[in-house]
Specification:
By secondary structure, this protein is of the alpha/beta class. The chain is 38% helix and 22% strand. It has three domains: 71 residues, Winged helix-like DNA-binding domain superfamily/Winged helix DNA-binding domain (Arc Repressor Mutant, subunit A), CATH 1.10.10.10; 123 residues, ATPase, nucleotide binding domain (Nucleotidyltransferase, domain 5, 2-Layer Sandwich); 140 residues, Nucleotidyltransferase, domain 5, CATH 3.30.420.40. The chain has a five-stranded mixed β-sheet, sandwiched between helices. A five-stranded mixed β-sheet has the order 14-13-12-15-16, sandwiched between helices. Helix 4 runs parallel beside helix 5. The C terminus is likely disordered. Bound molecules: zinc ion (ZN). The site of zinc ion has 6 residues, from loops.
Length: 371
């Protein structure tokens, strides 16, 4: 279907385009921005002026003069004017909240250790967000929550076996409470955005998260693949060996029973002498499961996010070797399987990127409360 764009769409797109070029730590003059985007000088001046007024960008000093003409003023992301609040529900036994700046850096952090069987209910999330909102103060312009589970485009948690939730309208709940734009996203999708925009990820990338379970997310041309049921990437309970061990979901031989951090730690605890073999077998198992989707989409870049003591060379090399040997052909380049290097904060920082992607196009909601 052909959809006619209107001037406010064009303006929103231009804001996103300029923000993207400067995120996270770019410094460019208006002339550079015009050169890279094809925008006219008048449009760039107009849109950047508006973004400076809104607190998204700021002017630095003059650019170095090279050649003739007056040096332009450099623009960068403003890290002082505005704040975001993000919460990560994906880690076992702890719920993490952060106040963040517009470069997705953590300014303040609070952790709540979970007892009571690792349970979180929506009221606990509300209470942590409330604490973070108070810390952030009047500069706050958006809230994000990363959830281990299936999340719809409207921010509804369709299902999360880790949290024991189904059909929780988390975005509506938080927007109603705090009257700010809210994003609720799947945790693997958040980690993928962090890897893409703050790490080494490419516009087409598959990220696999090896945590309590196994989750994945796919980015194609910088857009998430969501799927008909919002469940693209939910590969943990796909059976890879029907005669394999029983899984908590009732089936046998799910991918998660072989490759999750919990399963691997348990196996290493039982046979500490076989540590390298266990990790390499797990990498082979994951590679065997990924070779078909990777070839189907012709992807070259696979990131694995997980505990460094598990997701190391033995695991990654076996995974890459399996994918490349099973899919080898004259027309496909070598698939790279690498570790996501952003550490424990990847999910929080990626969730901040999700919020930024949602708000930078808008005038108004992202303006400071004082203006
Ligand atoms: Zn299962």
């Amino acid at each position: 279907m052909y959809v006619k764009s209107n001037p406010s769409d064009a303006r929103a797109n231009n804001r996103r385009l300029l923000f993207r070029l400067l995120f996270p730590d770019g410094q460019l003059s208006r002339a550079d921005l015009c050169k890279r985007t094809g925008l006219s000088r008048a449009t760039a001046t107009d849109v950047t002026g508006e973004m400076i007024e809104d607190g998204l960008l700021r002017e630095l000093g003059a650019a170095r003069r090279d050649g003739r003409g007056k040096p332009g003023t450099l623009l960068a992301i403003d890290t002082d004017a505005l704040r975001l609040v993000c919460v990560d529900l994906s880690r076992p036994y702890v719920m993490t909240g952060a106040v963040m700046d517009l470069r997705a850096r953590i300014v303040e952090r609070r952790e709540r250790v979970l007892d009571d069987g690792d349970r979180i209910d929506p009221g606990d999330v509300l209470s942590l967000v409330d604490e973070m909102v108070r810390l952030a103060g009047p500069r706050l312009v958006g809230i994000g929550v990363a959830v281990p589970g299936v999340v719809s485009g409207s921010g509804r948690v369709v299902s999360s076996s880790n949290l024991g939730w189904s059909g929780v309208e988390l975005r509506d709940l938080l927007e109603g409470e705090f009257s700010l734009p809210v994003r609720v996203d799947n945790d693997a999708s958040a980690a993928l955005l962090a890897d893409r925009f703050l790490g080494r990820g490419e516009p087409n990338c598959l990220l696999v998260q090896v945590t309590r379970g196994i989750g994945a997310s796919v980015l194609l041309n910088d857009e998430f693949v969501e799927g008909d049921d919002h469940a693209a990437g939910e590969i943990g309970h796909v059976v890879v060996d029907p005669s394999g061990p029983a899984c908590a979901c009732g089936k046998h031989g799910c991918l998660e029973t072989y490759v999750s951090a919990v399963a691997l730690r348990e196996r290493i605890r039982r046979e500490p002498g076989r540590r390298a073999d266990i990790l390499s077998e797990a990498g082979t198992r994951l590679g065997g499961a990924l070779v078909m989707p990777v070839s189907l989409l012709n992807l070259h870049d696979i990131a694995v996010y997980g505990p460094p003591e598990l997701v190391g060379d033995a695991f990654l090399d076996a995974c890459a070797e399996t994918i490349n040997s099973l899919s080898r052909s004259d027309f496909q380049s070598v698939v790279r399987v690498r570790r996501c290097e952003l550490g424990d904060d990847a999910t929080l920082r990626g969730q901040a990127v999700c919020v930024l992607r949602a708000i930078v196009g808008r005038r108004g909601p992202s303006a400071p409360a004082a203006s």
